[in-house]
Each structure stands twice: as C-alpha cells, then as structure tokens.
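chain below, 339 aa
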Amino acid sequence: MIHDILFFWVTVSILLGITITIIVLPLIRRWKTPSKIFNIRRIHNFSVYRDQLLEIERDFENGMLTAEHTESRRTEIQRRMLQAASAFAGHAGLKERNDTLNTKVIQSLLMSLVIAVGAVGLYLNRGAPGLPDRPAATELSTMVQKNAERLSDELAQYMEENPDKVEGWMLLARFQRQLGVYAGAARSLHMAIKQGVEDTDTLASYGEMLVADRGGQVTSEACTVFRLAHHHNNANAANDDPRAAFYIGLAAFQEEDSRCAISIWRGLEMHAPPGVPWLDMLRTHIESVTAQEKLTDLIPQQLWNDPLCGTCATGSDSPRNGSLGTGIDERANGAEELH
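prediction:
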C-alpha cells in the first residue's frame, strides 16, 4: 500500500513538472538573446569601417581617387557607421524589454506553482486518494466467466442437436462444473454414460455432481452411482478412484452411522498412496467426526475384500434406492433456466 501511494505521488510530481516546463519553456527561449554575439559583431563592424576610412584617405593622398570620389565613399562609410550605432542603441532598448520579460517569466513560474499546488490541494480535498482501485484480475475473471458461459451455452445447444457425441458431453460437463452448474454437469455426465462411457472416474464424477447439486446431501440416486463406481471392474475400483468409498462413508455419517463412516474413511486412509492431495481433507473429516462422536478403537473397513458397511453401500435402504438418472433432467433444465 505504501509503495502504491509513493508511486502515485512520484507520478503526479513528474506530470506537474512536465506541465510547468511546457508552459514556461517558450518564455525562457524568448528571454534568451544573443547579447555577446551582438557585441562581437558590433566591434568587428566598427573596425572594418575604420580601416576602410583609412584606406580611402591613403588612396586620396596617393592620387588614386579624386576629391569627389573620396567624399562620396567617406559619406557612405559614415552612413553605415551611423546604422551600426543605431542598432547598438536598439540593443540597449532590447535589454530593457528583456528585463520586463524576465519579470514575466518569474510571474509565469509563480502562476504554474499556484496551479500545481491548487490542483493537488483540490484533489486532496475533493478527490479520493485512499479509494482502492478495481483490480485488473477481477475484470479479467469476469470476462473469462462470461466467455465460459457463452461457450457453455453454445456447446449445450450443439449437444442437444448431436447427442451421440460422447466427447462433447464430457467437455460440456467440465465447463458446467467450473461454472457451478452442477445439475447441468450431472446431466451431461449422465448422457455420456448413456452413450456407453462407464469408467470409474466418470461414474464417480457423476455421483459427485449429484451430491453437489443437492448441497452435499448423498441421495439415493448418488448412492446407486457410487455403488456402480465402487464395484466397477470387480475388486479394485475403490483403489482407482477413492471418491466412491468416501461418499458412501459420508452417506453413512448423514444417516447417523458415524462408526461406519469412520471405519470406511480409515480404510481409505490406510490404502491411500502417499502424498495424494485429498488425504489431508480425508483426515480432517476423520478427526472432526471422531472428536464429535468420541469414537475410538475402530477397525478400518476393508475396501475390496469385504462389502462396505452402511445402507448406501448395500442398497438395503429403500428410500435411498433409485434408478440411474432419476430426476436429473428436470433439475438440469431448471438450473439452465436460472443460468
């Protein structure tokens, strides 16, 4: 902040200096006269005229010039000497005028200073030097947001006309997720799954968007998706994408089965590769729920040898059972209308 203020005032000082220079410099140039050069030329001219007069007298004495020619040339040289003397007198008057001009230059300088001080004072009194500026990053972020929304709308319209383009649905889902249109992202992933995409990452992402659309609540439809993701490719799906097991544990916690949730999450922690970015978040959940429920001596849930605990994992709770894609089209259409 201090550096910004210092930079501002340095910039103001430079601009004021440039303004004063532009105003005063033409006057200073008029003020400067070549007095020394004028004096040198005056002395030189008088020396030349004097030599010419002496030369005319010698020529007359030697009989080279008549009296009439001598008088004519003498008169011409004397006339030139009178002109030079008049010019010198004019130069003296010019110096007096320069003295007056010098006073005007000082007045111009004082006027420029008054203008500069008045402008700064007016700004400090009426302006807002402490008002924070609008960051360029915010402007850029807004512009990027609008462009992303426009591209998302155009791509959504294209996909409605070409629903068999799997790559288009996946790209649209990424756009909608970044824009926070979770219902739309879930619908796009659902359309991709209907076209035959059944990898663990897509299934887990679909379930995650269903949860995000419900404000973090793991619904029966999301449970169906997470079960498919967890059991995909038989035993090792939970290792490939841990989101399925995490959200199944979250569903258990939301059903007030905290022991099951902690058991699943500890098993996920035990089998997590070292240094994965989601491990700190998982441990935060474990510590929070453990401290809240005062749970100890829990055995980590085996993620692939045994079925996971909880009704979300087994599908035994009928209110949570649901078919894949139930209700997502209606929620996605509503989100697009709001968007």
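Residues 2-126 form one domain. The two ends are 38 Å apart (CA to CA).
thats it, cya
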